[in-house]
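hey so u asked for the seq, here:
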Amino acid sequence: MPDPQREPSPACPAEIAVNGQRLLAEPEGALHWPRERTLVVADLHLEKGSAFATHGRMLPPYDTAQTLMRLQAVLDRLRPDRVICLGDSFHDRRAAERLSREDGAHLRRLIQDRDWLWVAGNHDPAPPVGWGGQVVAEAVIGTLVFRHQARPGAAAEVSGHYHPMAVVHVRGRRIAARCFVGDGRRLILPAFGSYTGGLNVLDREIASLFHGHATAHVLSRSRVHALPTSRLSGR
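ran it, structure tokens below
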């Protein structure tokens, strides 16, 4: 895996096949389905910083603005007609109330003039009304099912929830990075939001869904690197 500090700036996505569909894993952590002019993101967790602040854990209050700016950049670059947010878009049920006026206006602009689907997650089982878009439990498009959390035994499935991370050792250095993880039958997306953290793909919660035969598509500054999970480290 190359040193991300030395990579060129143009985005270089990685092609991933799920149930025969050609998808592109983008370096920012979004999934692009060119044939359907669709962009998929998971786990934005908007207003996570303000949620922590209410419990005395002070984080810089910029996570929502940073997340929306990154999402804006991907939308401007790829220009999809449809956006699917795979749940946990808002960190909790009152997150929308804590959005600043500027961030709220920015989000509405992103939604405007697009087919926007809010898939319900465990943090936001009913995303707030009045923001535009359509709230769904899951979405079926073509041969793929889009839902928040993977279901054991399911196939043709694209999901989020787990915030997968890959750990690899390169030239004596430990590198941990967000990743997609899939096996051709299903794909789990990395968390797109700031302050989201992650779960090692070798953790049983994720590994048990793939029975040990999966590929991690690891994100760096401008590229996505495909690595079999057998090359990854559990710590």
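The chain has one domain: 15-231. Residues 3-8 have pLDDT under 50 and may be disordered.
lmk if thats what u needed
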